[in-house]
Structure prediction request, 313 residues.
Amino acid sequence: MQRIGYVLSDSFQMMALGTQAVFEFANQIHGSEYYAVDVYSPNGGDVRSSFGVSVATRPLTARSAADTWLVPGVLDPLVERSDPAVLTFLAGPGQRARRIAGLCTGGFVLAEAGLLNGRRATTHWLFADAMRERFPDITVEPDRIFVTDGPMWTSAGMTAGLDLALGLVEKDLGPDLTRSLAHKLVMPHRRSGGQTQHSEMLMLAPRSDRIQEALDFARRNLAQPIGVEELAEVAHLSPRQFSRVFTAETGESPAKAVEKLRLEAARTMIEQSRHSLDVVARETGFRDRRHLREVFVRGYGIPPQAVRRTARA
Prediction:
């Protein structure tokens, strides 16, 4: 049995506890109680979240033990400093654990405890620059869903904690069970740590279902030529109406939006697969690898080969 311990401080961010569902359903799919979850705080008893909800906890002592410690963050780590008792525990007895993870701004707690010195880490994009300035010994990767460096794991904001938790389960129980787990949690897919915090589908954020359906159609058919006529047909609008409504709702032209979706899909393939750039270009709808490189440099400021080298490292 693997013991998962959550370490809470006053005003912790409640959403971090939602990651417990990952371990709950992992047990269900595995068919046994592979994970046991406990919740701790420096003094034990009830601890109030940032939203005012209280959670019962066990007292954290030098004898507290877990295979993996998860440390939720707070709404603003620049204002709310970490509990000294938590820092003392993590810097000392807590390091007996196999892994320690900072969820969202919980990475600041790990950083203050000195656990991330000389390591790579991420946090919520809003506070990435502040982490870099406050802790210059940490290599902050602000555009990552989660980062693993040795026994230290850190995640980006909010829902990225679910991706980190799925990553922990995959390390323990393998990718097949994790795929079933993501499906059971009704997550569209299991995002790897290398993926960007920013999703083009979220950034475009259309208001109407018909424009959303057109974007979904585009994302499913990136390898094929996609014109305004095809998208307009999906949205049940004339091409002229569609272009006008699409731009009004997303702030982008249909052609530019499709290019961004292609670029995001290409980056994911480059980071997660060993396919050649020729294959990546073909599967994501670019004319050839030269066209892919051109758009990649324009969109990200670096060539696709640089992203692949970083992902492999």
About this structure: The first strand starts at residue 2 and ends at 7. The mean pLDDT is 90.
